[in-house]
Amino acid sequence: MDEHLNRFITYLIAEKNASPYTIKNYRHEIEQFLAFLKEGGIDSWAGVDRHVLRRYLAWLKDQGYVKASIARKVSELRSLCRYLVREGVLASNPISAISSPEVPKRLPEYLDLHEVDALLAAPDPSTPQGLRDRAILEMLYAAGLRVSELVALDVGDVEWSGAELRVLGKGDKGTPRPAGQTSPTSPGGLSAGGTA
Known about the structure:
Blueprint: H1 2-14, H2 20-39, H3 50-62, H4 67-86, H5 113-121, H6 128-143, H7 147-152, E1 158-159, E2 164-168, E3 174-178, H8 185-191
Antiparallel strand pairs: 1-2, 2-3
């Protein structure tokens, strides 16, 4: 079973281009599942069925894992079992009949007006770095950008006359976004060719 895990990890690296962080998590959590199987006297994939998987999920719950962690583990096991079916190790995917625990969606936290004002007032406008930081914060706030979208912006993505941005969002889709109203002191220094 360990050999199949090693092959699965190699598959994730070579074919799925998974990050080292993802690889580390998959390995750790699947090794936890294999340890659970070993404790239960199961030493081959033929012994893994939906009843064993349900016992594992119950064990995770008894261990105090939250729904989000259990859902992640189910997803990882689902990927592993899909791979094992593809490789002919399993005849069918035993986890396909098991649904992940429903994870409640959390609403994002937001800043109130006083916190936004304090954040925008934090950079020192008398320095080039302060001007840059103020422009960054205002752009995030005024255009409603994600940090990753802001970092990906290039000078050519800014339409200075129309105060519009060409933002590369999720899925590499470029979408126009209004730049919003910002202070004339921060982006003005940058648009005039300043380099903060």
